[in-house]
Write a structure and sequence with these properties.
4-stranded antiparallel beta sheet; 225 residues; Dna Ligase, domain 1; binds magnesium ion; 2 domains; alpha+beta; 7 helices; binds adenosine-5'-diphosphate; 28% strand; D-amino Acid Aminotransferase, Chain A, domain 1
């Protein structure tokens, strides 16, 4: 896929988590929409990245061992000026410490329904695709559906329909109806990726934010064998 996996396995034969930008490029090869992200290695480059993206922005700490960023104060949403971005970077760096090796700057995505799309290499079934209720409370609610790729066109719809949170996508109690077709495209893209690339042993898009305007992944992790 765009040579990304081959190149990375040549450089890191033991396998590893891809860095954020590489993971986003790999997903892009499969038509999976991710939020525009610019990597930064300090407060000044974060502030400059924010101007390029357009304020307000989201600043997120990154680091090879940083998994639950918001648990350690590593996600700040809605920073309105370059100064605020630089200050937020310094605050994160001092509270997180050396586990933070850099950051990414993203546009603020409008609020929507947060869905998780995941993939694991199961020892018996091979690649397994999971869709569920996403966001920081995903583990708490344990609302998931699973399929073994390849996915047929109806599988993406069925995986969504099986979720207890499915009504949140279709106007539950006066909420807006969100773009379920865009969510299905994201799921189908992940299905193709898992089918094509057995080297991908773990993949986590959490959350994919689904709004009336589309579906975009704002937090992505991909691990190679
Ligand atoms: P982590 O899972 O490591 O804590 P995330 O990147 O998933 O960090 O961010 C945590 C939460 O912050 C998300 O569930 C979402 O609610 C919000 N968030 C993250 N990125 C954005 C963004 N670009 N726009 C709007 N909200 C975001
Ligand atoms: Mg996340």
């Amino acid at each position: 896929a765009c040579g990304i996996v081959e190149a990375d396995l040549t450089r890191h034969p033991g396998g590893r988590w891809l860095d954020y930008g590489t993971a986003a490029r790999l997903l892009g090869c499969y038509g999976i929409q991710t939020a525009e992200s610019i990597e930064a290695d300090g407060p000044d480059s974060a502030a400059a990245a924010a101007v390029m993206i357009g304020l307000p922005v989201v600043l997120k700490a990154t680091g090879p061992d940083l998994v639950h960023k918001s648990d350690v104060g590593g996600v700040r949403v809605g920073l309105g000026t370059p100064d605020e971005v630089g200050r937020a970077y310094r605050e994160m760096a001092s509270s997180i410490g050396p586990a933070m090796t850099g950051a990414v700057v993203q546009p603020v995505i409008e609020a929507g329904v947060e869905i998780i799309i995941g993939g694991v290499a199961h020892e018996a079934f091979g690649p397994l695709l999971m869709v569920g209720m996403g966001g920081v409370t995903a583990e708490l609610l344990a609302d998931h559906s699973f399929r073994v790729p390849p996915l047929g066109d109806q599988d993406t719809a069925a995986m969504i329909a099986e979720l207890r949170c499915a009504p949140l996508l279709t106007g539950y109690r006066g909420r807006p109806c969100v773009d379920v077709a865009a969510l299905r495209k994201q799921i189908a893209g992940v299905g193709r990726l898992l089918e094509d690339l057995p080297e991908v042993v773990e993949l986590d898009l959490n959350p994919v934010i689904v709004t009336p305007a589309g579906a975009v992944a704002v937090d992505v992790r991909v691990r190679l064998a």
